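A quick aside before the break. I want you to see a complete sequence-to-structure record at least once, exactly as it would be stored in a machine-readable document. Don't worry about memorizing anything.
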Amino acid sequence: MYQVVRARLCALVCETVTAFGRRAARRDAGMVTSEYAMGIVAAVAFAVVLYKVVTSGAVSAELQGIVKRALDARM
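That is the input. The structure line, written in tokens, reads:
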């Protein structure tokens, strides 16, 4: 008797969790315009910071050294 009740209870819980997950996924299917705008602003800010770092003197010299060593390597 205990095993039957436990199996039915587990099945009910699993169905409830699955149904709740499906409903939650349908409710929050995508981003709204303000979220897209914030994502774009964050991406542009990250790109600017990355550009500044890559074009700085030390990083630029190191990248040029890496490329030069790669081109001078014997095959």
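Two observations worth writing down. The first helix runs from residue 2 to 27. Helices lie at 2-27, 33-54, 57-72. We'll return to this after the break.
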